[in-house]
Amino acid sequence: MSNKENTALDLFTIVQKEELNSITKKLVIYAPDIAAKAQAGQFLIIKVHENSERIPLTFSDWNKKDGTITVIFQEVGFSSIELGQLKVGERIQNLAGPLGNPSEIHKYGTAVIACGGLGTAVAYPVAKALKEAGNKVITLVGARNKDLFILEKEIEAVSTEVIYSTDDGSKGQKGFVSDLLKDLIAKKEQINIVFVIGPPIMMMVTSEVTRPFGIKTIASLNPIMVDGMGMCGACRVTVDGQIKFACVDGPEFDAHKVDFKELIQRLKCYIPEEKQVTHGEGHCQCHNH
Amino acid sequence: MSQPLNKEKQTQNRFKAVDIQRQEPKDRVKNFKEVVLGYTEEQALAEASRCLHCANAQCVKGCPVEIDIPEFIKCITQKNYEAAITKIKEKNSLPAICGRVCPQEEQCQQLCILGKKGDPISIGRLERYVADVEREKGITVPKPAAPNGKKVAVIGAGPAGLTVAADLAKLGYYVEIFEALHTEGGVLVYGIPEFRLPKDIVKAEVDYIEKLGVKLTPDALIGRLFTIDELFQNGFEAVFIGTGAGLPKFMNIPGENLNGVYSANEFLIRVNLMKAYRFPEYKTPLGIGKKVAVIGGGNVALDSARSAIRLGADKVYIVYRRSKDEMPAREEEILNAEEEGIEFKFLTAPTKIIGDEKGTVKAMEYITMQLSEPDASGRRKPIPIKGSETMMDIDTVIIAIGRTPNPIIQSTTKGLETIAGGIIVVDKKTGKTSLNAVYAGGDIATGEATVISAMESGKTAAKSIHEQLSKKQ
């Protein structure tokens, strides 16, 4: 059973490849069944070759008509480097998805999306869905410098307003996304919900900004996963004192209840082994987001 | 147990089982190759010759799938191995697997008449022998019935799903198995280690099922990629859910999320499914320390402990809150583990896991238990002994205290009745769920059980599906 119509293409063939910046690549992959079902906030598990790891990956877009999904990733660990080496016409051996619960999209009123790094790729479909649901969407995007922004045009097209920040001041305000959010609150913007999507440390800091004001804040978590389907428990996170599995209970949770320190500690679990396979090229195993 | 067989033993009396060859403990702790090496032809013939071929065979009553055991053993004594395997396969599509992992000592062999005066017939070893002989020669696939034009969807390619698929394919159904992982076999590939069940054997059994005409679709998580309603909309007339045991349980003690604490599921998935024992050739990492505590007393705990010792741990403990008598693991595997140097700490329950400044495990605190008098159900409850808290030096903890059903299908299928914890409610006699033409079996319908009981429920469901769909024109 499959929605596959174009039999000329094998499942999971790469139909387009693009380098978005020095550290970020984009692949458009033929996966019609996944494209038909994908929703904002969900993720994929990929295994590039026979001997590869299973790693979680987020998709930034999908096209039901062409039967394709778009993934954006940084080559930061062995498996993402391996993925980056694939060429147009080659195929990924295994691709499972869409996984996880979709984002809860309602007409909230004003929705702020605070995103940074690769989280921007995850944020794009969330912003789009929120806009389509009739929200005023303010997107705050952070990066280390102006060359590292991705999907600027796309994000601008689906946001009511986009505000940028960079660590070095090369684009937008100098500082962090959390500073942009502080300013927005100080300007008395009536915010109904905030989505924070990015590196865990950024999500931790940004969700602290909204806590004193009681603004509902959702974080999209990115722990280590193996199966991604509720079997291994590697992705367990503590939310409100309870163990939750990001793959089946999430990946989105109430940011004010997430133990981010624990998440950050657990993401460091495989650094020694990662070095062993990458011979020191990779820095971490934060594959997702 | 580990001594090779000598001639004398083969001519021994009817009441002594022919021993089976195993890798020596000192060798096998250094590799992941199969521990039990199997019978030679001579040994199989000697063992088979002990069978009394009872007219009213008790062993058959102990077999969940009712294999005609005396008959297949008789075929062995006549050296007609093809007839022997054909006889088994009338009832069981996965004999090489069942011969290895079925708890025969609690089933067929427990009822064997010879067992009253000596050793029961080694039915499992003989089943394995004929299945291995067949595989080495090349498996012959029976000609399926003419296609009947009816489509059945099977969710999950574990023992239950594979059984349903094989039985229905033989009857002429078009069967498609949707497997969420990248490879078929379910617990046989992600759970049971290579040294107990080599993966090329699972592969051969899956290939056999594919040759029966079953379509295998990996990477398909039903509930997300397609819902059960969508399967029906796409022309499937019945659906079987065999999605297995699912989410790992944790103990809810401090320190469980420290680095170095694994669920047995994660540990075994990394080792078996992802082949982390061949890292870095296979890219999945697995950090294993020098002192490992495995929590639990079942087969999963033993599989984890025996994997850990093979991965190079200096010391591996099984930490179990009851005593040896209450251990749910197979006796044979307990013995194997003891021979491999696993240390058992009985009446011991972890209370706290302690980490270093980096959030990595460095110790575990436990409390000593004592067993209560048997309660009304005859079970002795472990009770903590106050003030007996003790610290042990540990750098890896593997938690093997069970699993709860995966919630994805239940939460995406309207009207599918479940009981507390998410087990799907079925009629035991038919495998029917609360939804029309939706059947379930294996651990998702029974809670955690054995490979053979999953197969039994698969057989039941296949029969009911055939009955339901035959009536329908």
Provide structural commentary.
- The complex is a heterodimer of chains A (289) and B (473).
- Chain A has helices at 32-37, 78-84, 119-132, 152-158, 177-186, 200-210, 246-249, 260-267, 271-278; strands at residues 14-21, 24-30, 43-47, 55-63, 68-74, 94-99, 110-116, 136-143, 161-166, 173-174, 193-197, 217-220, 236-239, 242-245, 252-254.
- Chain A has 289 residues and is of the alpha/beta class.
- Chain A has a seven-stranded mixed β-sheet with strand order 10-9-8-7-11-12-15, sandwiched between helices. Chain A has a six-stranded antiparallel β-sheet with strand order 1-2-5-4-3-6. In chain A, strands 13-14 form a two-stranded antiparallel ribbon.
- Helices cover 34% and strands 16% of the residues of chain B.
- Chain B is globular.
- A five-stranded parallel β-sheet of chain B has the order 5-4-3-6-18.
- At the A-B interface, helix 1, helix 2, strand 6, strand 13 and helix 8 of A face strand 7 and helix 14 of B.
